[in-house]
Every structure is written in C-alpha cells, then in structure tokens.
C-alpha cells in the first residue's frame, strides 16, 4: 500500500492507471499534466511514495516536471517512473537523466505496471 | 749499576774551575756529573743531567760515541793497563762543533780512594794541558817539550827524553830534560823492533850508579814506531800501572803532534812551491808582454827572452836559435844568447847548424815534457855543434851532493814551433847553476817559456811580413792606379812592364802572345839598346814555350803562376841549358843569391786558361833569389796584369764587333728593305770589303744545273766576275771545294797553293777565305774573300764574322730565288683558276640540268607524265634521234615501254626481252654503256636498223634494276662519255622519281584503308562514348592495375571531380576522399587488381557512400575479357548512382512510421489496458463470450503492439537513428539467456522443445552491441520456436571462422522453400504457407535482424529445406581486444 502521484494528460489512460493501481491496493493522486503534478508535489510532496507520469503532456512535459520535482525537497528522492509510448530514440535515456527511476513503455499490461511499481517501491524501501 | 759512585765535593769544585767541559759517566753509561763548562756548552740546567736530556741535546752522536760504544766497553783499556784516549766531534745545540775527548777513568781497588782520585785528577789536568798545547802550536819541539815535562812531573821521574829520528824528510828531533839517560842501545832496539813498551823497575844507572826505574815507550805513528819516549826515575818500581797508562796516553799525544807537524810541513812546502810558481808565472808574463810588444825590435825582444829564461830556469847559458823563414835548408841561426859573451855568439853564428841535424835527436827517448835532454855520452854520437862553456862557468861535474849531476856536453834544448806545428827554432840551455840535470819543474817552466817565445816570434814575424807585404801592395796599388788611368793599350802595357821595376827587378820583358804562343807585342824595360834591337830575334820559339809549359817536371818550380827555375838545379840545367844558355858569369856563393842563369817567368792566362802573355824577370836589385813573399807579390801583379790585358783585348774586340754589327745591321735592313737581289748582294760585298779590309769579295750562286754562277762582286774585276761560271765537278776550284766540303775555309799564304784554281779576276792572291751560303742545309752559293797583300791575313775569327755575312748573303740569294718561284707560282695559279672556272661552269650546267629534271620530276606523281618529261629533258642535252624508257613489269621478266619519243606511239606498251641485246647487257651489268657503231657492235641484234649509235642506262633503285633508258642516233659515234655521265645522273633521278611515284601510290592506298578503318572505329567509339555519357549512372572503368581508363560525365559529377582529373589516375588516389565507406570500394578494386585469379565472374560490391550532401550507391564489378578462354581480368567497372532522393524518401517514410507508431500506441494502451483490466476481473466477473471477445481484443492489441515495435525498429535502423554501443560481447552468455527465454516460452505455451547449445570451446568475444545481439538471437530463436512443431529440436551453435564468430540457429521445423528463401528478408514478407500464417508475425523480424547483423559488419544467411528445418546463421566480428 503506497501513495502514488500520477500525471497523464490522456483521460482514459489516467483512469486506467488509477484503476489498475487502486485495484492493486495503492492510493493514487492524479494530475492532468506535469504542471499540476509539480504543484501537487510542492503542496504535499512528502505524502507520496512514488510518482509516475507520462512524457508527452501539455503545459509541462514529463521531463520538465521530473526535473522540477527533483528540485523540491520533499520529493527529491521519491521513486519516479515514466510511462511513455517511446516514439523517439533516446527517450528512455532522457528520462533517466531527468531523474527518473524506471521507465515503462506503452502500451503496458496492467500486471506488468503493478509488478514494476511493486519492484520500484521494494527497491526504494530497501 | 748497583754501586753508587759518588763524586766528592772538592772534585766537583775542581772540575768546575776548568775551562773544558767535562762530563763524568759510569761504566754503564749513567751520567754522574757535568761541570759548569759542560752545562754552559751543552745548555744543560742541572747536574748531573739525565741521560735522555743529553741524548736529546747532542742527538745520536753522543749517544753513539759516548754511551753505547765506548762507555759500555770500558773494560779493555783497563785490562791492558792503559788508558785509552778517544776523541770525537759532536755538534752542540747552537751549532758549535765540539771535540769530545773520552777518557776512561780507572779506579783500582788497591788504591786509596783519595790518592787515586788525586792522581787521576792530576793526570787529567796534565792531559788537558797537553791537549791545550796540541791545539796551541804546531811546533813539534815545543809539544814534545811539554809532553816530556808533563811526563816527568806527573810520574815523578828524574829525567827523560824524546827521540824522533828523521822520517819523511823531516829533521831528526831529540829533546832531553834532566840528565841524559844513557840507555843501552839493545833496549832501544828492542822497543823499536817490538813496538812494545819496556819497563825496568830496577835499572842500574851506569853514571849515578842508582837503582832506579826506566820506562821506554814507543811512539807509534801510522802503525810504525816513529820514536821513543824514555823516562828515568831514581826510585825503583816507580812506574805503577796508572802511571804507565798515563805515559802511554802521552805517547799517543806525541803521535798526534807528529801527525800535525807533518801535515803542517807538507802544507808549508806546498805553499812555498805555489809562491815560487806564482813568481815564475809573473816573470813569464812579463817576458811574454815584452815579446809581444810590436814596437820593439825583434833582436831586443829575443835578447830579453833569453835573459828571462836564464833568470827563471837556473841555467847559466841560454841560446835562442831560429830558422830562416824562407830557407828551404832549415839552417838555424843563433839569434840571441844569455850568459855568453857577444864574441862567442858571433862565433857560433858563423857555423852551420841545420835543423836537419837536430831531427835525429827529436825522438821519444830524449823527450822530457816538451823539451829534449840528450845525455852527454849519447850526444857524442850526433854532430850537433855547441859551444863549450866550461871555461865560463866552472861546474863541478863530480858533485857528490847533486842527485843527478850535469855532465859536460849534456844537451838540453826545447824546440820552438809555430801554431801550425812547423819548427821555428830552439832554445838550448847549458851550465845549470846547481849542477843538476834538469828536473820536471825546470822542463815545465821552460815549456811555458818556449810556448810564449814561439807565439811571440810568430807574431813578430807575421808583423814584419805584413809590413813588407803592405808596402808591396801599396806599390801594386800605385802601379795599378797608373795603369788604369790610361786608355791606350800600348801605354798600359808599358806601364805594366815598368811597374815591375818597383818590386826590385831591373830587367823586364813582357810579351803578348797569340793562341800558338807566337809573340804579338813585346815591351822590354831595363835592356840595353843592343838587346832591344835583337829582342825579336832572340825570342824563345813558341814551340819551346809549349814544351816547357807542358812538362810535368816544371811544376816543381811553380809557385802559383810564377816559375822560378834555379840555374844550379841539375834538371833545369839539363832541360833549359840550351834555351837559357849557361853564361860564363861566376856563380855567387852568397846563400840565396840570384845566379846569372836563374830564370823567373810568369805566364799570364786568359779566362780560357790559354797563355796570352809571358813576363820574364831578371837582375833583382837585392841580388837575392825571390822568396815566397816576392813570388806572392808577383802572383798578384800577374793577376792584375792579366785583368788589364784581358780588358784591353776585350775592349778592342768589342770595338771591332761594334763595327761589324753596324755593317751587319746595314746589310740586314737592306735585305728587308729591298727585294732587288743585285742591290743587296752589292751591299753585302761592299760591307764585307770594308769590314775585312780585303781586296775583293765574290759571290757565286749555285744553279740547278750544277754550275756556280758569279752574281755579285766588289773590289777587283767586279764586272768580269759577274756571270762567270764554274762547273761543280771541277774539284780543283776553290769555290767548288767549299761547296763540296760545306765548311768555311781560309787559305793563307795562297801563293804556295799551286794546285788550287780560283777562277777569280786575280793574278796573285795572298790569302783566300771562302764560305758556303746555306739555306736549310742546302748549299745555295759560295762567298769568297780575297787578300792581295797579307799572306796570313785570315784567322778563325774572320771565318766567324764572314759566316755571319754569308748567312745574310744566303738569305738574300734565297729571297731572290723565292721571288722567282713566286712569280712562276702566280702564273700557274692563274692558269689553274681559268681551268677551274671552266670546270665549274660545266659542272654548273650539269647541275642545272639535273635540277631541272629533278624539279620536273617532282612536280608530278603521275608516272607516265614523269617518264615522258624526263626523256624529253634528257634529249635536250643529248639530241638523240629516238629515245625510250622501259620498265620491268611485275607480270613477267619482259620490259615494257613506258615512255618514248621519235617513234610510233604504238611502240609504247609492247615489251622487250630483258635478257637480250643491249637492254639485256645493261640490265645484266647494271652499268650504262654506249654503242658507238651498231655495225660493229655484237650487243646490237637488229641488223636492219638504221640507227648507227645507241646509249643505254639502267634505272636502279636500291640495287634493283627497274628499267632501262635508251637513246638512239642515226649517226655513228653520236654519243660522248660526257653525255653518258649526264644521262646516267638523269637516269638516277628518273629511277628515284619512279620509285617515289610507286611509293606514293602504295602509301595512298594504305592511307585510304587506314582512314576508313579509323572512321569506323571513331564512329563506334563515338557511339560507345555517347551511350556511356548518356547513362544517368556514373560509370568509372579501371584497368587491371587499378588505373582509371574511363569515366563518364555523370561519374565525374557524382564524385565531384572534373573528368580530366579522373582519367589516367590510379583509383588509390581517390582513397580517403569518401570516408570509410569509400575506402571499401577502393580497397575492393585494389584487392581485385592484386589477385585477379581469385575472382569469379559474379564478384561485385555494392555500397553506399555519402559524398558531400549526396548519398551515392556504388556497384563494382570485375571485367573479364570473354574473348579469351582464360577469362583474363581486364579491370573493374564502378557504377555510381545518386540515390540521395531515394534515401531521403526512405527516411521520411521511416519518420512517418515512427510518428504513426507512437500515435498508435496511445490508443493501443487504452485498448489493451482496459481489456487486460477486464480480463483480470477488475470490472467484475466476465461471461464466457465476454472473456473470449476480450481475449480477441487483447491478442490483436498485442499483435498491433508487436507490429508497431517492429515498424519503429526498422524505421530507426533504416533512417540510421539506431546506433550501436559496441563492446566485447560474450556469445555463450547471450545464448544462455535466449535458451532461458525459449524455455520460458516452452513452459508458458506448453509446447515441448529440445533446446541445445553447441558452442565451440573458448569462444572469443565479439565486437557488438549486447542488446542488439540479444535481439538478433532471440528473434531467430523465437522464429525457430514458432515454426518448429512440438518436440522439435533447436540448436544454437557458435564457431570461430576467421575473424568472425559464426552463430547459427538450427531447427527441425517446417523449413523454407528455395523460392521463399530469397524473399524472407524483405520487409512485411510473409509466406502464404498455412503453417506460417498460423503464427502471428509482422514480416519485419528477419528484415530487422538482417539489418542489425549488417550494422555489426556481419552477414546473415539462411539454408533450409522445406519440411526438414532451417538454419539461420550470422557472423559477428571478433573483438579487436580479443583478437589481440
């Protein structure tokens, strides 16, 4: 049971993630874009055990948001997972450089998402 | 030392009062006491000093002498009962030399200490006094006195004496004190003989009758008994041992005194001798100074000398005898004497006393130093005159005291010699004042005197001679000044003759001589008028002179150049008797007097050592024969005279020569100035006449007909002489003899020469001189000089001069001859010029003709025209009736008419047989010929022909006869040789022209053919070129060596290099221009070129290279020559195609795919995600159909996902966005992962599969991207899994193959048909086979794999058989690190 902040501009997918994670027992806070996610993180970043977001989002991309979140004291070490449709070469690399812990490719199977989250959390707690 | 020896206070005081330094030591060397003097002397501070202090002060000296050597060995003096006295020297610290007297101190047990001490001290005191005495005086008497006194006093004796008999020349000494002791002589002898002392304790004194003590001690000096010390005491037993020791010590003192005295005596003797010597030397020096003072008369000097000797050498009589300087008999003359009355001296002087007599005694037996002493008993054997002086100086010849008494007639003398060792005289000594024969010292002194005297005498004589000589030189100088002031030779000669008078000669004859010694001129002085008149008649004949001067015996009378012949010499009398005559004058008996028939003459020699004058001298004023000095002076005079006469002669000769050369100059310039022979010859004759002062000069010229022709003359009968001839065979003629001998000749006294004919206008010539005139060793004439008056007119000199004129005459004659020849030559030249001009004109004509032919022939290449024209031109010259040119035909051996004139046209064409008739001959012989008359000519076969002459010339090209030119004429002999030559030359041109025309034809045909060929080729090439250039692709052809031989425009455009810069270059030069990909292209070409045999027809290389902003595809293929069976490699063809646009399109396509793929993923995520969620039951339980439908959605979403992923992959790869992260990769590790993956799938799908690995051991790492290799192998393994039925086998193999690791995935699946194998790597290709379609796939997998493999530099291949399985293999390069 972990508190997870997610950001995804695509409503269906945001819902899918939320559903999947909630279904597997996590508490999910969702944001519609990077900007919102950063605001939430600034507001109560300490609440979250994991942050997960899309790369391509309006207002603020996932990379920018990731870099901003890493600047916030409460979230600078929080595990961070990108979810992306990896359209371009080097995306994964850019994400990791921005401060991400893990990278999950779309489309993803719900069990794979859950497994990955569990794995990252376990790693973080250890 | 165990016993302490104490020295009593009073003893110390006593010692301190002594001036001598005394140190007392024990037997063992311990120091007991040192008195005040010792302390002061040795700078000691305490008494007794320590041993070490003393040693330190005196060094080892004292230690050695005092302590170790003597001190310890103190036993012996005591044992002997004698005191030993030793003295040594040591140095004190302040450098004083101190004598140390070492005196053993004896003390005996039986002597009272006080008494002993007292006596010892007394003794020491006495000895010190003696020592003082020894040091104070050298007088032996005094010392002995002192010693005796001390001995008597200290031994309490009554009397005593010391006796020293004479030893070593010293006086005997006897000193007595007290009454004399009458000792028996046998006691004395005993002591003398034994050398031991004798003590008689109870001796009976014969005079006093007392029984006293007598001690006799020998005085030992230098190992011998020198004397005796005797002591007598009236008390018996008086001399106890201590006293005896004391006495013995005293005798030692005496010995020392004797030694001192003796040395003193010797010293004094030496001093006396030195003084005496000094005085002597002073006297000598004084005498020497006197002798050397040149202003004193010699006689005074000699007198002084003998006095000095008399005074110095202790002889009463001293006589100095000297040799006469110039006397060859070495007669001695007594010059001075000391100790003799003058009368006695004069008496001596009258007697003969020759040095020769002395020589007999000058032998080593008598030699004493430098002097000679002949004892009286031997001197009688020699006839040496001396004066008996016994009356003057009575000498006791029997003097007993004399050691070596002088005997009467003892002969003692010392010879005097000059610095060269020549005897000067001698000094004789007689009557020694001491009556002794001379000893060494006398000889020594005399020697010194003799040396001084000799030097002085020599000096004096030299001085005297110098004066005399100087006087003579002055005279000579005066005469020479007089002579040289004169210019006239005769006057000079007279002065020379008279000048001899100044040297004391009253009769003088000076005669000049010619080479044969004939007198030329005679000057006499001091002769009577009668003598002068008969001078010439009385001259000695030249032949006699020659005999004399060549006679070897005469040389003994020669003194330099003077000859003095003493008339009393036997040889002279014999030899010269007749010549000089022996007159009746009475000979003078004065020694050295000039005798009436003495002869003195001096020949004067010129530079060639020929006698040119003789001086005869007689009647010297002195009446003496000439001495050396006179001869020397005369010698000088002779030299001077020689110089004067030579100069005069030279002057005369020079004047003559001057005149001669002036004449010669005139002749010479006349020769140069005029070519008129007569003028020059006349001048030569005239000048000769003047110069030689003859009466006629005649010149003959030698003609070629061996005649001598008179051409010039001067003097008598000039006109008569000209043109007279003499035949050269007439040998009696003088001129002819000159020609024959070739040498100049003169005939004096010609009147005697009866046989010689002169052929001259002279009746009675007295002398003739003839010389040949030669030019270049050829005698061209003769010149003759004639004298009418003087019989011996000519000499060698004249020949010399005349020859010079002869040379000039020869030149003139030769010049004249040359002028004639020149004229003739001119005429000949003129003629030759005319001839040559004519020949040239003809030649010119001929050349013109040939030129015309050549020009005509060269204007056309039309053979017929050429031939006709040539024939016409030839005939212009020859003017024949008919002519033709026939050429050989190729068809047969006949000749065909090709051109003709003067005959029917039909004639042209028919042929003639080439081996018949005139034509046949010409062809056979290849020679031109003329038939002068056909009637008589055998070669002419047409009998009825009306031509009478014919001319045939072959036409020859390169040694082949190609035809004949024929000319005919109706007249016989119509053709000349000249014409033939001309026609021949023309024929040559014609032949060449024909040949040229043929060659031209041939060449033109060839050219046409070649032009056609070329045109065809050009067209073909142009076609090919056009095709090549029109190709849109670039084409570049390289030959087998890689050199670019062809490139079209497109190629140059694509490669970006101008076409002309590509052609001909090796492809290697393009290397590096196009990066790594370009390199592989060039490398391929190079490799192919290097190993063409490895190539196969199918080999090709396809590659893409980026050039600037373009992408170029390159296709390279080898080219083989199919024409040749061995398929020769010809090169490579590279095809370039600009595929930039295609690539760009491809890229855009890929990008499009990428974008689309991405955009597809988002909806796919939702589809798949929600389907999954639902299937997971997130929305509640699902019904069966729901579940089935959702699964379909999910499966298709998965397929779509896969498709998108593959599309993305391939698009990235193809757009070049995929980059490899190359590292060393371990294939087995990846294989393991893949196998796990397969096992996972097997389990998951419940499909059993055998998965095997077959990996080579120690497989090297490969250079690869690990993700991509995993992808490749997984993909291939998945395919194998997918297309292999359950329970099949999949084998993963890996082996090493060269630089690659070969990986294969083998399955036992459905296999791939051969047809499909070609297509399976295409994108989206999927077989229609049902088994394939069963498996879901995108058709992109293998395309991706292939791309990835190739990106790694490897290759992907497949081998498969349908139904049996497939094997996909790929290669990966071994890591370089690994490789290394």
Quickly describe the structure.
The complex is a heterodimer of chains A (126) and B (1380). Chain A is built from five helices and five strands; from the N terminus they run E-H-E-H-E-H-E-H-E-H.
Describe the structure in your own words.
The complex is a heterodimer of chains A (126) and B (1380). By secondary structure, chain A is an alpha/beta fold. Chain A contains five helices and five strands; from the N terminus they run βαβαβαβαβα. Chain A has helices spanning 11-23, 34-44, 62-71, 91-98, 110-125, and strands spanning 3-7, 27-31, 50-54, 80-84, 102-105. Chain A has a five-stranded parallel β-sheet with strand order 2-1-3-4-5, sandwiched between helices. In chain A, α1 (11-23) links the parallel β1 (3-7) and β2. In chain A, α2 packs parallel to α3. The longest helix of chain A is centred in the C-terminal third of the chain and has 16 residues, at 110-125. The mean pLDDT of chain A is 88. In chain B, α6 (113-136) packs parallel to α9 and α20 runs antiparallel to α23 (796-859). Helices cover 46% and strands 22% of the residues of chain B. Chain B has 37 helices and 45 strands. At the A-B interface, α1 of A face α30 and α31 of B.
What is the strand and helix layout of this fold?
The complex is a heterodimer of chains A (126) and B (1380).
Chain A: E1 3-7, H1 11-23, E2 27-31, H2 34-44, E3 50-54, H3 62-71, E4 80-84, H4 91-98, E5 102-105, H5 110-125
Parallel strand pairs in A: 1-2, 1-3, 3-4, 4-5
Chain B: H1 9-17, E1 23-25, E2 31-34, H2 36-42, H3 51-58, H4 60-71, H5 75-79, E3 86-91, E4 97-102, H6 113-136, H7 140-154, E5 159-164, E6 173-177, H8 185-194, E7 198-204, E8 211-221, E9 224-233, H9 241-292, H10 298-313, E10 315-323, E11 332-338, H11 342-349, H12 355-359, E12 367-368, E13 371-374, H13 376-379, E14 411-417, E15 423-432, H14 440-485, H15 489-499, E16 505-513, E17 519-525, H16 529-533, H17 542-550, E18 558-559, E19 562-565, H18 570-580, E20 599-605, E21 611-620, H19 628-673, H20 677-692, E22 696-702, E23 707-715, H21 718-721, E24 725-727, H22 734-741, E25 745-747, E26 767-775, E27 778-787, H23 796-859, H24 863-878, E28 882-888, E29 895-901, E30 911-912, H25 917-925, E31 929-931, E32 949-957, E33 960-969, H26 977-1030, E34 1034-1039, E35 1044-1047, H27 1049-1055, H28 1059-1062, H29 1075-1090, E36 1101-1107, E37 1110-1121, E38 1128-1138, H30 1140-1176, H31 1184-1214, E39 1223-1225, H32 1227-1245, E40 1249-1255, E41 1262-1264, H33 1266-1282, E42 1288-1297, E43 1300-1307, H34 1314-1317, H35 1330-1334, H36 1341-1351, E44 1356-1361, ...
Parallel strand pairs in B: 40-42
Antiparallel strand pairs in B: 1-2, 3-4, 5-6, 5-9, 7-8, 8-9, 10-11, 10-15, 12-13, 13-14, 14-15, 16-17, 16-21, 18-19, 19-20, 20-21, 22-23, 22-27, 23-24, 25-26, 26-27, 28-29, 28-33, 29-30, 31-32, 32-33, 34-35, 34-38, 36-37, 37-38, 39-41, 42-43, 43-45, 44-45
């Amino acid at each position: 049971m972990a508190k997870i902040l997610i950001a995804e501009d695509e409503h269906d997918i945001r819902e899918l993630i939320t559903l999947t994670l909630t279904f597997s027992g996590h508490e999910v806070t969702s944001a519609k874009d990077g900007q919102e996610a950063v605001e939430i993180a600034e507001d109560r970043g300490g609440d979250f055990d994991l942050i997960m977001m899309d790369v391509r989002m309006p207002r603020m991309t996932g990379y920018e948001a990731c870099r901003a979140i890493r600047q916030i004291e409460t979230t600078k070490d929080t595990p961070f997972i990108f979810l992306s449709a990896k359209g371009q070469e080097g995306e994964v690399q850019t994400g990791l450089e921005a401060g991400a812990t893990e990278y999950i490719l779309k489309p993803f199977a719900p069990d794979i998402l859950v497994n990955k989250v569990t794995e990252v959390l376990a790693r973080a707690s250890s | 030392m165990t016993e302490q020896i104490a020295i009593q206070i009073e003893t110390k005081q006593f010692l301190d009062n002594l001036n001598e330094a005394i140190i007392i030591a024990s037997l063992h060397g311990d120091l007991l006491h040192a008195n005040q003097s010792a302390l002061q002397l040795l700078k000691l501070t305490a008494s007794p000093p320590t041993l070490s202090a003393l040693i330190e002060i005196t060094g080892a000296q004292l230690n050695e002498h005092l302590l170790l050597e003597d001190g310890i060995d103190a036993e012996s003096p005591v044992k002997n009962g004698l005191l030993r006295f030793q003295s040594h020297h040591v140095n004190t610290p302040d450098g004083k030399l101190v004598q140390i007297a070492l005196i053993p101190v004896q003390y005996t047990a039986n002597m009272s200490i006080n008494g002993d001490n007292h006596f010892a001290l007394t003794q020491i005191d006495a000895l010190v006094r003696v020592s003082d005495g020894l040091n104070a005086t050298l007088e032996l008497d005094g010392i002995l006195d002192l010693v005796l006194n001390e001995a008597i006093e200290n031994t309490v004796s009554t009397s005593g004496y010391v006796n020293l008999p004479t030893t070593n020349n010293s006086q005997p000494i006897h000193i007595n004190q007290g009454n004399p002791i009458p000792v028996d002589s046998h006691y004395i002898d005993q002591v003398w003989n034994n050398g031991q002392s004798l003590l008689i304790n109870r001796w009976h004194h014969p005079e006093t009758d007392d029984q006293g003590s007598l001690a006799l001690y020998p005085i030992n000096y230098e190992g011998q008994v020198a004397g005796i010390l005797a002591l007598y005491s009236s008390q018996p037993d008086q001399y106890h041992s201590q006293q005896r020791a004391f006495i013995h010590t005293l005798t030692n003192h005496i010995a020392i005194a004797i030694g001192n005295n003796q040395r003193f005596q010797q010293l004094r003797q030496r001093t006396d001798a030195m003084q005496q010597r000094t005085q002597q030397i002073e006297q000598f020096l004084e005498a020497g100074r006197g002798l050397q003072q040149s202003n004193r008369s010699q006689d005074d000097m000699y007198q002084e000398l003998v006095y000095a000797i008399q005074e110095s050498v202790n002889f009463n009589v001293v006589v100095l005898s000297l040799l006469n300087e110039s006397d060859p008999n070495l007669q001695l003359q007594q010059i001075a004497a000391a100790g003799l009355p003058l009368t006695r001296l004069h008496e001596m002087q009258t007697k003969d006393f020759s040095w020769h007599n002395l020589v007999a005694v000058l032998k080593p037996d008598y030699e004493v130093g430098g002097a000679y002493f002949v004892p009286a008993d031997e001197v009688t054997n020699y006839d040496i005159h001396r004066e008996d002086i016994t009356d003057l100086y009575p000498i006791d010849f029997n003097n007993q005291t004399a050691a070596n008494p002088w005997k009467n007639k003892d002969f003692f003398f010392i010879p005097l010699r000059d610095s060269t060792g020549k005897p000067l005289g001698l000094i004789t000594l007689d009557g020694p004042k001491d009556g002794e024969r001379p000893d060494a010292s006398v000889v020594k002194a005399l020697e010194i005197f003799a040396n001084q005297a000799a030097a002085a005498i020599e000096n004096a004589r030299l001085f005297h001679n110098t004066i005399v000589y100087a006087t003579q030189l002055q005279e000579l100088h005066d005469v020479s000044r007089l002579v040289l002031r004169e210019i006239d030779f005769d006057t000079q000669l007279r002065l020379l003759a008279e000048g001899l008078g100044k040297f004391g000669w009253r009769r003088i004859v000076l005669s000049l001589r010619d080479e044969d010694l004939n007198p030329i001129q005679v000057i006499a002085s001091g002769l009577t008028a009668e003598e002068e008149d008969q001078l010439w008649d009385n001259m000695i004949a030249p032949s006699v002179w020659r005999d004399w001067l060549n006679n070897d015996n005469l040389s003994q009378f020669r003194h330099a150049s003077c000859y003095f012949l003493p008339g009393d010499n036997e040889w002279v009398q014999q030899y010269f008797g007749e010549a000089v005559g022996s007159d009746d004058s009475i000979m003078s008996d004065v020694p050295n007097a000039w005798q009436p028939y003495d002869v003195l003459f001096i020949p004067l020699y010129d530079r060639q050592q020929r006698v040119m004058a003789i001086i005869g001298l007689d009647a010297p004023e002195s009446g003496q024969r000439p001495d050396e000095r006179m001869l020397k002076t005369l010698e000088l005079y002779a030299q001077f005279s020689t110089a004067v006469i030579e100069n005069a002669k030279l002057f005369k000769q020079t004047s003559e020569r001057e005149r001669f050369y002036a004449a010669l100059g005139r002749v010479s310039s006349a020769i140069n100035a005029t070519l008129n022979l007569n003028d020059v010859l006349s001048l030569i004759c005239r000048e000769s006449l003047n110069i030689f002062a003859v009466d006629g000069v005649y010149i003959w010229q030698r003609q070629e007909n061996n005649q001598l022709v008179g051409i010039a003359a001067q003097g008598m009968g000039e006109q008569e002489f000209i043109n007279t001839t003499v035949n050269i065979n007439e040998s009696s003629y003088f001129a002819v003899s000159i020609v024959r001998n070739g040498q100049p000749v003169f005939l004096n006294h010609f009147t005697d020469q009866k046989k010689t004919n002169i052929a001259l206008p002279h009746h009675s010539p007295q002398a003739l001189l003839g010389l040949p005139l030669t030019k270049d060793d050829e005698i061209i004439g003769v010149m003759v000089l004639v004298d009418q008056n003087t019989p011996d007119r000519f000499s060698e000199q004249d020949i010399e001069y005349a020859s010079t004129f002869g040379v000039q005459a020869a030149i003139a004659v030769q010049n004249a001859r040359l002028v004639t020849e020149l004229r003739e030559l001119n005429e000949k030249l003129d003629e030759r010029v005319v001839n040559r001009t004519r020949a040239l004109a003809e030649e010119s004509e001929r050349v013109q003709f040939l030129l015309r032919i050549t020009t005509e022939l060269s204007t056309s290449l039309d053979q017929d025209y050429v031939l006709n024209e040539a024939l016409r031109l030839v005939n212009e010259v020859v003017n024949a009736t008919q002519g033709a040119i026939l050429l050989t035909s190729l068809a047969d051996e006949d000749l065909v008419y090709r051109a003709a004139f003067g005959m029917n046209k039909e004639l042209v064409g028919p042929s003639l047989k080439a081996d018949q008739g005139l034509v046949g001959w010409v062809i056979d012989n290849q020679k031109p010929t003329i038939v002068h008359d056909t009637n008589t000519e055998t070669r002419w076969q047409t009998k009825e022909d009306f031509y009478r002459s014919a001319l045939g010339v072959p036409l020859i090209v390169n040694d082949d006869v190609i035809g004949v030119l024929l000319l005919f004429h109706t007249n016989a002999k119509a053709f000349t040789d000249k014409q033939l030559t001309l026609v021949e030359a023309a024929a040559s041109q014609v032949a060449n022209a024909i040949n040229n025309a043929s060659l031209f034809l041939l060449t033109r045909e060839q050219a046409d053919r070649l032009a056609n060929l070329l045109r065809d080729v050009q067209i073909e090439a142009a076609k090919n070129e056009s095709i090549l250039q029109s190709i849109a692709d670039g084409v570049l052809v390289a030959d087998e060596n890689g050199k670019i031989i062809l490139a079209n425009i497109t190629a140059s455009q694509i490669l970006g290099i101008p076409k002309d810069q590509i052609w001909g270059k090796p492809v290697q030069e393009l290397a590096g221009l196009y990066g790594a990909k370009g390199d592989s292209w060039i490398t391929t070409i190079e490799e192919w070129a290097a190993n063409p045999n490895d190539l196969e027809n199918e080999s090709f290389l396809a590659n893409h290279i980026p050039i600037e902003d373009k992408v170029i595809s390159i296709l390279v293929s080898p080219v083989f020559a199919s024409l040749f069976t061995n398929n020769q490699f010809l090169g490579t063809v590279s095809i370039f195609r600009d595929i930039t646009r295609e690539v760009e399109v491809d890229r855009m396509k890929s990008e499009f795919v990428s974008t689309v793929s991405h955009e597809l993923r988002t909806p796919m995520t939702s589809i798949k995600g929600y389907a999954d969620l639902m299937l997971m039951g997130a929305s509640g339980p699902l019904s069966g159909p729901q579940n089935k439908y959702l699964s379909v959605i999910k499966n298709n979403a998965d397929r779509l996902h896969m498709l998108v992923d593959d599309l993305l992959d391939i698009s990235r790869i193809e757009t070049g966005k995929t980059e490899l992260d190359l590292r060393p990769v371990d294939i087995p590790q990846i294989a393991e992962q893949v196998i796990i993956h397969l096992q996972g799938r097997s389990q998951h799908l419940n499909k059993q599969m055998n998965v095997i690995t077959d990996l080579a051991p120690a497989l090297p790492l490969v250079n690869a991207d690990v993700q991509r290799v995993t992808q490749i192998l997984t993909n291939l393994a998945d395919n194998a899994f997918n297309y292999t039925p359950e329970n099949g086998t999949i084998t993963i193999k890996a082996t090493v193959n060269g630089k690659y690791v070969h990986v294969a995935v083998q399955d036992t699946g459905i296999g791939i048909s051969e047809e499909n194998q070609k297509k399976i790597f295409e994108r989206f290709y999927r077989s229609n086979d049902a088994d394939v379609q069963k498996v879901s796939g995108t058709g992109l997998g293998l395309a991706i794999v292939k791309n990835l493999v190739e990106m790694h530099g490897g290759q992907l291949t497949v081998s498969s058989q349908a139904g049996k399985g497939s094997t996909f293999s790929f290669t990966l390069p071994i890591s370089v690190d690994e490789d290394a």
